[in-house]
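User
Here is a favour to ask of a fellow structure person. I am asking you to supply a protein in sequence and structure-token form. Please set it down just below, with no commentary around it:

Assistant
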Amino acid sequence: MNTEYDAVIVGSGPNGLSAAIVLQHAGLSVLILEAKETIGGGLRSAELTIPGFLHDICSAIHPLAAGSPFFNKLPLVEHGLEYLYPEVAAAHPFDDGTVAILKGTVDETASGLGSDAAAYAELLAPLVKSWPGMAPDVLGPLHFPKHPLDMAAFGLNALRSAASLAGKFKTKEARGLWAGMTAHSIQPLTNLATSAIGLVLLATGHLEGWPAPLGGSQQIANSLSSYFLSIGGKIETGVHVRSIKDVPSAKAILFDLTPKQMLEIAGERFSPLYKWQLERYRYGMGVFKIDWALDGPIPFTSAEARQAGTIHIGNTFEEISQNELLTSRGQHVDKPFVLLAQQSLFDPGRAPEGKHTVWAYCHVPNGSTVDMTAAIENQVERFAPGFKDLILAKHTMNTKEVEVYNPNYIGGDINGGVIDLAQLFTRPAFRLSPYRTSAKGLYICSSSTPPGGGVHGMCGYHAAKQALKDIFHTNTSL
């Protein structure tokens, strides 16, 4: 079959870029189509508040990118990517002025957890040891692992609810630190498998740190695209694909999109069963996002929080767990769990001298248009008295505006769909390969496939490998 390209990728987020690189590296002719004028999906950066203040529009801190088995095979440093590391990876302050921190080795973090030091080390030390060999299995589709015993040990804890595994800890410090990590799951902490993301984030934190790219998250996308172009790939921006007919002819088309857009663009090509499965795909809580330009650094009461790249704001495990549960049930809480990043502390080029940029969001019901600015700012002020006095300007996005920015964020869901037990390995549909659609040559490579959300490129990597096998009868050396 004569086609314009061997493969076309629709969408230039980290997974679309990763899929394109795998296919181009295998010697194919590959085109990326991006609806926006700038590539990157959730990796874009821009001056959202005041000229000279550079903000990350979506993702900000990148432990999974730094530890990505795929990204680490690529010469991204040669294409301009440099990670910067804060002195403290993450801090979790409490009302009494104390703090729990993720920093350095397992023992360094455990030393700040009082009587839970041994329990923390017992939980994390074996995982940190086995993670480098096990990461490709965890960050992929369901299959027989290369390290079955390590995977079994991981799974026994990962499949438990965060609330259940929190029972290992007695101190507010360890329980609070665990709550902040597992709340990245964006679902009630009583749900099964909410421990998985907490374990992964802690393990990668100990091994890779929690860095941010010099010059903003856009630099990850820029380095990936630079490498893709250097090996012969092609990118076209400003191309909004509304129908499969808008895509140039190709032997394989990979969509870095969620099931909702897939149905709109190519639904007529799918079988009734596959369409039914995609229509039943579930999206989770959304986010309300704020970026601030500040007149100085945030005056957190805790010295460690003033040194941290990431702050988890929500106080105790009990408070965070309750508020995440209420949010999942459609309520807007007064004291939401807030994820906050202060990148300019360790990347001073993000703001004019002496000034700072800060990034934060909280979880809200999917599709919410409620303004959570006051609630988020009150939470920050709670642990950093005087914070509000430093605000020079702010930029906010509710879930509708988040979705306009990136149509993959359905109702503000930045994970590409709920990553609960029912959609952990069967996202977006229960199939032998989650990346294949029911139409030959059409694939899905977004975070709506395993292993799910996060900047790691592994969804795109595995989808491209599947296409190579099915359509081109080859494999990749990457």
Observations:
- The first helix runs from residue 14 to 25.
- The chain has 15 helices and 16 strands.
